Amino acid sequence: MDSGLEEATQKLAWLSFACARDDLESGVALLAELKVLLTRLHSLPPLEKTPNAVEELKIARTIYENAVILSLKIKDDEAFGRNLCQLKEFYINTWLVFARSPYEYQFLGLNLLRLLPENRISEFHTELEHLPLEALNHPCIKYAVELEQSFMEGTYKQLANFCQAVPNETYVYLMDRIAESVRDEIVDCSVEAYDYLPVSVAKKMLMFTSYREFFEYISEEQPEWEIKNCSIHFHMAKPKSHMDLSSFKLIKQALSYAQELEQIV
After folding, report:
1. Average pLDDT score over residue span 157-182
2. What span, in angstroms and rounded, lies between the C-alpha atoms of 24 and 112?
3. How much of the chain is in helix, strand and coil states, percent to nearest 5?
4. SS3 196
């Protein structure tokens, strides 16, 4: 075995071990070393036919699969997006060279899921159209599609069920982000629509499973809310100018529509 390939194989095993036991600091350092090693493998783009081409491509693909998981664990959204994009290229360009990764649809489902918190719906459907028909029956892809459909229907109350039924543990972080985005929207609407809500109603509306989590959220994220007589009072959180808030929402919505139209055209 080529010395560079052997070193990459060994460090990949260490990276997988570090990710499995949540040794994130070691994982980040190993990933940086592995990405440097990848530049020395001759079969990687620009693609050259070498005796070790298949092994080198397989190792590179596995490195980026680990990179995606690691970026999720360290909550680095930019690295997560970059690593997923690079991983997709290996999935697209190598499926005729050797067998698909057993984790391919798991990661492609993550790719779909990451678009939802940013409301990148047109990109979501573009990515979906590029998937083979067999992928649509995979649990991870079906999960992302059903979640997007529930968003389009406005059935946010199902989100708690989705959070509890993730098809893979790697989906937990993204679902937490999606839940936070939806919760922020509900909070904005609730503050506008109500002067107060019963604690039990607010807890359910904001999709908390326990009162402890709910009160921690209020303490950390909504300190201006007042808890009085078993109710949450929003008067201190109401915006000074309703017109300003409405205008801001309209501008934000218009920009979102413009972006969607631009991508469609």
Report:
1. 82
2. 25
3. 70, 5, 25
4. strand
CB 58 within 8 A of CB 22: no
pTM as predicted: 0.77
Instruction: Kindly calculate the radius of gyration of the chain based on its CA atoms and give it in whole angstroms.
Output: 22
Lookup: tokens for 212:
């402890």
Token pair listed for 93: 């360009």
The one-letter amino acid at 240: K
Distances (CA, A) of 7 to 38, 55, 162: 10, 13, 41
CB 199 within 8 A of CB 230: yes
The whole-angstrom separation of Cα 89 and Cα 30 is: 22
For 227-235, what is the mean pLDDT?
A: 88
End-to-end CA distance of the chain: 50
Q: How far, in Å, CA of 174 to CA of 162, rounded? A: 11
Q: Are 127 and 104 in contact (CB under 8 A)?
A: no
Residue ranges per structural domain of the chain:
1-101, 177-264
CATH architecture of 177-264: Alpha Horseshoe (1.25)
The type of residue at 167 is: P
- d(CA 205, CA 215) in angstroms, rounded, equals 14
Which pLDDT score is estimated for 135? 92
DSSP label of 168: S
Place of tokens 């979501």: 124
Cis peptide before 46 (omega within 30 of 0): yes
Asked if residues 151 and 116 have their Cβ atoms less than 8 Å apart, the reply is: yes
